[in-house]
Amino acid sequence: MAAGTKGAMSSTRPAIRVSDVRIRHLDSLIDTPDGVSFEVRPGEVVLVLGPSGSGKSTLALALDGLVPHAVPATLEGTVAVDGVPTVDTSVAWLSERVSMVFQDPDAQIVTGTVLDEVCFGPENLSLPVADVLERAETALRQVKLWHRRTENPDRLSGGGRQRLAIACALALRSPVIVLDEPTANLDPVGIDEVYAVLADLVSDGSRALVLIEHNLDAAIGLVDRVVVLDREGRLAFDAPVDEVMRDHADELLGLGVWLPTATLAALRLRAAGVAVARLPLTPAELTALLDALPGRAAGPALPAAPAFPSAPALPSALPAPDPLPAIRVTGLRVSRSRTELLHGIDLEVAAGSFVAVVGTNGAGKTTLLQAIAGVVAPPRGAVDVLGLDPARADVRRLAGTIGFVFQNPEHQFIRSTVADELAHSLELQHLDRSEIDRRVDRMLQRFGLENHRDTHPFLLSGGQKRRLSVGTALIAGAPVLALDEPTFGQDRERAAELLDMLKQLNDAGTTVLVVTHDVQLVADYASHMVVLADGEVQAQGPTARILASGALEAAGLRAPPLVRAMRAAADPAWHAVTRLRDLDRVAAS
Amino acid sequence: MTDAARDPYAEAADHGPLRFLHRLNPLAKIAGPLPAMIVLIFSHDVAVPLAFIVIALALLIVGAQLSARSALGLFVVLPLAVAVLTVSFGLWTDASRVDSTPVLVQVGDYRLYLGALGVGGTTALRLAGILLLSLVAGLTTTGPDLVRATVQQLRVPYRIGYTALAAYRFVPRFGYELEVIRQAHRVRGMAGGRGPVAGIRRRIGYVVPLLAGGIRHAERVALAMDSRAFGASPHRTERHLVPFRARDVVFVLVFWAATAAVVIGVMNA
Questions:
Q1: Which residues of chain A have pLDDT under 70?
Q2: Are both A146 and A276 inside the same structural domain?
Q3: Given a cut of 50, is residue B5 above it in pLDDT?
């Protein structure tokens, strides 16, 4: 009802007008964003893009007045909601006009049942009980959680909890919803759930969304307009999605902004000499582009096509085969509190390979990794890492054989300076002081931490913490590195930075074992994949073969966007392409 | 299933008129037994704790829907604990005050008198009594209902009550986080040897990452609550009323009367 009247008079007045906004956090010396202006019109979906540190999340907090009302920061310029500057009103008044969905679903839940959670906002507005319940029911039905209203939110999946957060925003009946990285903590199934709900919400045009999202493949189909910030937090673009993404893709890449996979693929084709008139944004558009390439019907227009008989023949899919397995797992069974989580895992990891363990939440990925790395002692004789049984090894020998990097680097920091943190496992090995110093210096240099030698590890930036955690895992000379969800909750830029670093280590001979649910990212780096489902190995082998085999779908995952686009192409020659760099080869040969 | 059984937020179930404790206001269930608990702190007579134990057990057996776990605790673990405490407190008792009673056990110079066991038993029963009286409310009340009652009847500001409830959600999260931190420190070789000093050092090492994570989480939750207008107005809609009815008044008064009767009865005896 409210949305209807608003929609009628909305063609003139923007829902939110941001004018020359500069925000400086209490402990910061620079403004990010820095002088940004744009409008959010009723019913419009606005995507905000920008590299790490450009102030996207800060901007999101300013749109509903949390900056400056609840976050210690100074705001210059104005954010006007419905024509009212946010500084002149209260967060409560704003909550009925602009509602928020945050990144971490767990940090938004405050009550004990799904229904109470959705009622929380309307109750705070002191609405009559009947209205509260009516709003809650409507919102829960919209996100398809009404049948689970009596349950504890903890029992929902990650995607379910994020849908609940969206329902909470809906119950406030605000014409604008701001979503700050709503899918960064979700697995692919959860991401799909959230975007199915969002697509449904915007279909009638009654609600505007402001999306801050790094997962462009999922989001781009909904977006009307894109606002891009540069590294300094200044406005780089503010235009319809087609104009920004299709006409300025190269500039966006230069700014450090991630692009949809389909767009990246087309850029690679274009660079390799294939004529691409209009850049695609979605997998379907990429497929259409491939099918429309000149001479398609006439046969092998691309010289490379005949060179791709089947996936395993791809040179990139076959790293030098190593007869010596670095890790051998035989019949591994692991139980926790009387439930068997892994049901007899058999696995071999060749020395020098880069292996990604993928699977849905609860498939047993982390449990497997922890057993291999001895974080949780496996049954004796089930795991062999370079001749060492983690079940019997002491910490010192284990650290010299396999390094483990936890999902949150903070969890594993145990000393009060960066240098001590690196020196720790060397001290356990009772090395010479001079040798320890030498190795620590080398490691500081290698990971770009020379200037932070005496800094407390907790005071490093997110990316530095991650690098330090990898450095500590490697310094004792471990030839095997195991990482648990290293890209979880990070933006694309950080994730790519980390994977590039792992790639370098791998090129230098380190065997890398990564647990992840980010299949696309891994497809471009891993030489091998292990697909887990319900505590069993569903498939294992070279990445290209696994991606092409349909094993991901069988395990409840989705093939990455590039694979989906390629598989749908009419010419079977494309079907073998699973990574962006395969495209170079297609066009080059 | 087990998750649901332990769900601290599960809706307060109604188990019919006989299980009347579930239908009482949480504050009544605390106010009623409170004087009796205070009496137990100061009493030295075995009859007083015994009387209150009988009263509390009778209330729980009739008025509460006991799960198998609670029943096991009440009827097996608690008596065992009382027995163990009786002997332990007995061993601690000053023998010179009870050496007029018969000797039960003699090992070398050491004599355990019957009187010592009597003193130990009284202390154990007093503790058991206090525990049982608190369980009258504890086993029949949910956390949210207690918060609602404090907000609705005791006029505790809702901002405090509901923030406390939200903070309660942190507990399992912190438990999980602590477990991960312990694992991480163990693999890093932070075991640091055995003994109490190493143990304390180890635990101090857990505090920093736990606090860092906790503060960040709390800030996020606070923002999420603010953005949903929490604390905006002096009142908020309450969908679940937890009224203080005539039967709550009756329960409190009867309990107080029974407490007075026990005390006077024992003093006269």
A1: 1-12, 295-323, 587-589
A2: no
A3: no
What phi, psi does A457 have (nearest 5°)?
Answer: -55, -30
Q: Domain check: are A168 and A209 in the same one?
A: yes
A61-90 residues touching B, CB cutoff 8 A: 61, 64, 66, 69-71, 90
The stretch B140-159 carries a mean pLDDT of 90
Expressed as residue numbers, the domain containing A304 is 262-315+584-588
At residue A4, the pLDDT reads 40
Do A59 and A134 share a domain, yes or no? yes
Q: What residues of chain A lie within 8 A of the CB of B223, using their CB?
A: 61, 66, 70-71, 100, 102
| Class of residue A399 by CB neighbours under 10 A (exposed 0-12, middle 13-18, buried 19+) | buried
Give yes or no for a contact between A71 and A61, defined as CB atoms under 8 angstroms apart.
yes
Nearest residue, CB atoms, A410 vs list B188, B205, B209:
B209
Does B2 touch chain A if contact means CB atoms closer than 8 Å?
Answer: no
- The per-residue pLDDT for B196 is 78
A459, closest residue in chain B (CA to CA): B212
Per DSSP (E only), the strands in A3-53 are 16-25, 34-40, 45-49
Same domain? A64 vs A17: yes
Q: How far apart are CA A179 and CA A98, in angstroms?
A: 10
Q: Is the dihedral of CA B163, B164, B168, B170 positive or negative?
A: positive
DSSP of A391-425: TT--HHHHHTTEEEE-SSGGGG--SSSHHHHHHHH
Q: What is the pLDDT of residues A345-399, one digit of tens each?
A: 999 999 999 999 998 888 889 999 999 999 888 999 999 999 999 998 888 888 8
Residues A235 and A280 grouped into a single domain: no
Domain total of chain A: 2
- Among the candidates A236, A259, A282, a domain finishes at A259
Tell me the mean pLDDT in the region B228-234.
88
Q: Is the pLDDT of residue B2 over 50?
A: no
pLDDT, position A2? 40
The C-alpha of A519 sits at a distance from chain B's nearest C-alpha, in angstroms, of 25
CATH label of the domain that carries residue A159: 3.40.50.300
Interval B92-98 mean pLDDT: 83
A65 in any annotated domain: yes
Domain identity same for A33 and A60: yes
Q: What is the pLDDT of residue B4?
A: 40
Q: Is A299 found in the same domain as A232?
A: no
Q: Is residue A290 a contact partner of residue A309, using CB atoms and an 8 Å limit?
A: no
The DSSP symbol for B73 reads: I
How far does the CA of residue A64 sit from the closest CA of chain B (Å)? Answer: 7
- pLDDT score recorded for residue A338: 81
Shortest CA gap A113–chain B (Å): 7
**Domain boundary residue among A238, A259, A280?**
A259
How confident is the model at residue A588, as a pLDDT? 60
